[in-house]
Amino acid sequence: MVKESGQMVEVKPESAVALLKKTYPVVPDAAVILGSGVNVLEGLHNPLVLKYTDLFGHAPSVAGHSGTLTIGRLGTAGHDPLVAVLRGRFHLYEGYPWDNVTLAARTVVEWGVPRLLVTNAAGGLNLDYNVGDLMVITGYRDHLQPCWKEEGLLPAVMAEAVPCANAVTDTLLSVGSKLSQEDSRFRPLRQGVYAGLLGPSYETMAEISMLRSLKCDAVGMSTVPELMVCKDTGTAAGAVSVITNVWRPDEVMGGHEEVLEASKAASRRLDTLFRRILTSA
Amino acid sequence: MKLRHAKLIDFTGELGQFKQYSGFTPEVVTELRNKEKAEVAIIVDRAYCQGLGENVPYLVSDHLNLTGDNPLVGPNNPVGERFPVVNNIYLGAADTMDQEETWAIGNPLGKFATGVAAGLKAGVVPGSEEIKFLRELGASLYCYNLVPAMLVAAHAGLKVIGIALPQGESLSKDVLACLLR
């Protein structure tokens, strides 16, 4: 199915949903799409693992994205929440068309899953942020849709950020706030606007300044397609960025070990956050 | 940086000593990726400054990619990294000549205005609202070919001297001599 250029043909969420329904009789209570390097919700009870190649006809080509969908319960009881965890995603910068990039999210919507949590690794623009912070996305900017290739990016840059206001985002914020009150080691969550850029090159300093003047708090190359797909559907989607670096021109970046350790600690906090949200009604 | 083997890319049609391109085409990509001994690409493009900056030649200090696209989208070419860092790629005048040489003969590039280039999609002409917005974002000019060419050059490991010339202008003899020495 994959052409040599990395372009895809004929992809429909209906066929993925048909396979999912045939394999697993119950629609999950929630789905989670994980970005690279984010390890959460491991060890689900009675897991069923499906490969993206079987489900979607192809797998992500980026290292660190495994390309699996795991269905399982958070605990051993039959009433424990049933969760579908999608590890890996398709990116526009790889050359995949919009239909492929949005396929996982469209499948979640078509499947009738009421709640979707999305994660990504992002660069911090807000100078108050630190490596390893978790930022709940309360708004996003679309600088990556293929239509901008036809029009140029000016209309996108001049548009307002899209608010990400729904029950899942509210729950992320309220549960995060409770967790940091209960445990001083649980770093308070950040909340802010995520700029979704096409990539694959990182931003220039002039672009960083531009995004700051557009009041963006973090920048990355994913997640916006998923949030756009779920908007105004029966699936409420909320997203969290793991801040892996902060753009400061005068600051020496932390060593690789430091960043890795910060990401691990962030994954642990994200795991706590997600488990708590998924078990709250 | 040594300019001796620099890639010479001209989008203005004015510089006979450079390789001529009518726009950002696959031939530009091929030329930039065929590195040979080059450390630097000298890319000259048309500048449109109306409402933004002065109508003078610019040495580009940085850019905003507002083309809506990126030439590096697709399977990664092994000439460079999957996620290239494209900061500090544009050379300033002082980077092109050592101090002794500057004292001896002077650096004509040092007299150029410097500014941020907004890279727009080829053919897009911004209206007054858009010009105002571009100015707020810090742009001194807009151009069509420099930004995608720079991204390919940076991915291939080259530094870039980005020059943007107003309509109808060419480079003076002393600047050309400095770039081609």
Could you give a short description of this structure?
The complex is a heterodimer of chains A (281) and B (181). In chain A, 34% of the residues lie in helices and 24% in strands. Chain A contains 10 helices and 10 strands.
CATH domain class of chain A: Alpha Beta
Oligomer: heterodimer
Helix content of chain B: 10-25%
Straight-line N-to-C gap of chain A: 40 Å
Q: What is the N-to-C succession of helices and strands of chain A?
A: HEEHEEHHEEHHEHEHEHEH
Report the radius of gyration of chain B as a whole number of Å. 16 Å
Overall tally of structural domains of chain A:
1
Give a verbal description of the structure.
The complex is a heterodimer of chains A (281) and B (181). Chain A has helices at 13-23, 52-56, 98-101, 103-111, 147-151, 154-158, 167-182, 205-213, 224-230, 256-279; strands at 30-34, 45-51, 68-73, 82-87, 115-124, 134-143, 162-163, 190-197, 218-220, 236-246. Chain A has 281 residues and is of the alpha/beta class. Chain A has one domain: Rossmann fold. With 181 residues, chain B is an alpha/beta fold. Chain B has a single domain (7-180), classed as Rossmann fold, CATH 3.40.50.1580. Chain B has a seven-stranded mixed sheet. The longest helix of chain B is centred in the C-terminal third of the chain and has 10 residues, at 146-155. The chains are: A alpha/beta (281), B alpha/beta (181). The interface between A and B is medium-sized, with 31 and 34 residues.
